[in-house]
Fold:
Amino acid sequence: MIHSKAHTIFIWLFILAIISYFSLFLLMFYIPFAEQRKETDPPISTMQQTDTYLRNWNISISAQENYYASSDHSSFGEGFRYSVLSGSIGQSNPTRDKQGNLLTKTVGSGTDMNIAWFLCDVWDALEVPEEERCQISQCSWTLFRTSNGNKLLIASLKNSNTVYIAEQIL
Structure:
């Protein structure tokens, strides 16, 4: 009798383990790791995305969004965002982010290796198409950083109304 009771428990545990394994395996395929808007997709609310920048960085943006890509922030709260905008950005001069962390602001123009590496990380993580990538050598830019590693880059193409925004959230 003891042998059959232990055998039954073993079988139930084995079945539970198999179900758990396959559930996790299937879940891997349903978690979106990156979402990208394409021309055929329904438009994303520009207000929703620009409100995110205002909420996170205290930066007000009132431009038309032409391209947007974002990694999935729901799991760990970490990831990247990238936007291409038409129009001008009315930047305020924020000193703190939404959590109250002090912001470090760096302003520059043209190619900077740290900016280029940061952009490459964002583009690679989000698989941003070549035609949506900015030519940093032709831009003036502002980089905001927090002490915990979050970054926001705003790059404006010279002699154009195109603005690129890259964000890293840690």
Summary: The CA atoms of residues 71 and 139 lie 25 Å apart. Residues 30-47 have pLDDT under 50 and may be disordered. The longest helix spans residues 2-30.
